[in-house]
Amino acid sequence: YPSEFLMQKITEDNQIPVHLHVSVSLQYVAGLKGNALVEFFHGNIAEVENEELRHLMWSSVLFYKTPNVEVMACVLLSTKAVYFLLDDSFIHADEHQSDFWNKENSDCENSSFHLSCCFVLKLNDLQSVNVGLFDQYFRITGHSADHIVTCLTRDSYNTHTFIQQLMAVLSLLARTPSPEPVDKDFYSEFGSKNTGKMENYELIHSSRVKFIYPNEEEIGDLAFLVAEKMDGLTNLQSLNILLYVLAFQVNHVEGSAQNTSSLQPKTLILTSSDLFLFDEDYISYPLPEFAKEPPKRDKYQLADGRRIRDLDRVLMGYQTYPQALTFVFDDIQNQDLMQNLTLDHFGE
């Protein structure tokens, strides 16, 4: 350990997405290659001597306790735990969560000293993994609210690769075997017999960690929600969701010295007649078992919606992935789509 192939793979994966900004401390980590990266892991992150680094991924993450703060993290998977190496700035971004993060090192103001905090989720504490629609994100759940993290990969390949690596590492864990008889083929039964309601697809891993995948009903629920936001003339049967993707909306900051822009996370949904942007709650649903009350906001909140027939042109940037798209809509005086989007049915 480590093999030449693993060293090469981890080095290739150690690249910060170009559109996201990180602190100097994480830039230092992204600059490490091969052996230096493995030595850094064992010298600064690993908790026990004999654990092996198996996978590295850069991803935006959300914590259950701070659902509004998306932060860039270097995610390291070892044979013992999942480590989230975070920006120091994240600790200060949400001051009222002071009990969540230990701030004893936050007085290091020396400019040559760059602090990162590391959140550790031990594999033995792992209970379930929820994979989001179209593998755009996944949520790791432990035994308490402090141990729920969503990785917003915005990339089905990265999600799939991480899940495969996680399953492989979990197979190495020595856990007490399940009582006989064991499920015939690892798949739990679809739904509980007493309700007849279709549950999400569950894969019970040999380590007894549940891997939960969305079923067709989630797309149906989403289509129903989208139809509600439209003008009411749409036949739900004919409404097809053509595309669901986690993206960023670019907001240009006026009056700044440079032409800077801020990225607002959005869920883009394309139907055969409309284009929608939603603010989605990626961390609170489905409700964890210990949750005593529903989340404060709905899973999907409409941010914007436009008719495809009003689309004038699409401008494409020439930069490499991720691609920037600008949708230009006709400036129509009477946008009948937007009228019922802003109507408050329960107001005065």
UniProtKB/TrEMBL annotation:
Q: Where is the Nischarin C-terminal PH domain?
A: 241-347
Q: Where in the cell is it found?
A: Cytoplasm
| InterPro entries per UniProt | PH_domain-containing_M2, PH_NISCH_C, PH_PLEKHM2
Q: Sorted alphabetically, which keywords does the UniProt record give?
A: Cytoplasm
Q: Which residues form the signal peptide?
A: none
Choose any GO biological process term that the UniProt entry carries and state it: regulation of protein localization
What's the name of the protein? Nischarin
Q: Origin organism of this chain?
A: Eudyptes sclateri
Its taxonomic path starts at: Eukaryota, Metazoa, Chordata, Craniata, Vertebrata
